[in-house]
């Protein structure tokens, strides 16, 4: 072998040579390649300047800090990946990481997303606090509203990071209430995906009970979609131990 003799072409997707279109002989037409959706979402990550940080989060560098519940959470996440093909079109095809800060909920969610993306499965990343604003801003304009919300409804998989972050206020009695505008947008997205059996990966500081409290229609659908893949981080113990370990 002579080095450099043959021009080697390396494509991210050998199937379409990164053109994102392939010829379908049955249809006698060019169609989108299976890599297209993933690449679209990768471009969105790149444009938001977070693709580097996103790609760095893997199962390997998730720290369980020797804590049982974190080990279990990681196991559930890895297991979700293994089972994904089998469950993706079923009613219970989703996963949620809920509760306390510091448990690495976002890390595990993104590790799952990276894993699915490596198999050409499109995972759209919804950074809740930022992305919901873009949808709410155009709520009074039908066409722009559809354009803004549709990607979150139609993505093969949707990762909702930090669901309901800054979406609540306190009423006069001190009860935490979900903003109407947030509730409306999220019900539309979640209900659509629930009916279509389209998977979601959710991270939120709210626990199951709190989600149901804030909005039963949204909360109950999320719980139904995730069921035994709902991982809750609660309790003083975890907090205490985490606190000690972080210091
Ligand atoms: Zn391709």
Automatic annotation (TrEMBL):
Chain segments annotated as transmembrane? none
The protein's GO terms of the molecular function aspect are: ATP binding
Q: Which PANTHER family match?
A: CHROMOSOMAL REPLICATION INITIATOR PROTEIN DNAA, PHAGE-LIKE ELEMENT PBSX PROTEIN XKDC
- What positions does the domain IstB-like ATP-binding occupy? 16-204
Alphabetical GO biological process terms: DNA replication
Q: What is this protein called in UniProt? A: DNA replication protein DnaC
Source species of the chain: Tepidibacter thalassicus DSM 15285
């Amino acid at each position: 072998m002579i080095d450099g003799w043959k021009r080697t072409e390396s494509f991210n997707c050998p199937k379409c040579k990164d053109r994102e279109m392939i010829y379908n002989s049955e249809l006698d037409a060019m169609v989108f390649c299976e890599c297209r959706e993933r690449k679209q979402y990768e471009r969105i990550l790149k444009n938001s300047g977070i693709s580097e940080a996103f790609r760095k989060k893997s199962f390997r560098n998730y720290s369980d800090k020797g804590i049982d519940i974190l080990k279990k959470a990681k196991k559930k996440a890895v297991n979700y990946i293994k089972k994904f093909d089998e469950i993706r079109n079923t009613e219970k095809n989703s996963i949620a990481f809920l509760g306390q800060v510091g448990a690495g909920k976002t890390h595990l969610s993104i590790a799952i997303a990276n894993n699915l993306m490596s198999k050409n499965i499109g995972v759209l990343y919804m950074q809740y606090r930022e992305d919901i604003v873009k949808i709410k801003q155009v709520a009074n304009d039908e066409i722009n509203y559809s354009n803004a919300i549709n990607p979150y409804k139609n993505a093969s998989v949707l990762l909702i990071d930090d669901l309901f972050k800054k979406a609540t206020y306190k009423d006069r009695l001190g009860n935490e209430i979900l903003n109407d505008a947030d509730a409306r947008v999220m019900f539309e997205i979640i209900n659509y995906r629930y009916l279509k059996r389209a998977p979601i990966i959710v991270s939120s500081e709210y626990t199951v009970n709190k989600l149901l409290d804030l909005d039963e229609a949204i909360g109950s659908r999320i719980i139904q979609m995730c069921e035994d893949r709902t991982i809750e981080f609660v309790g003083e113990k975890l907090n205490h131990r985490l606190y000690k370990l972080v210091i």
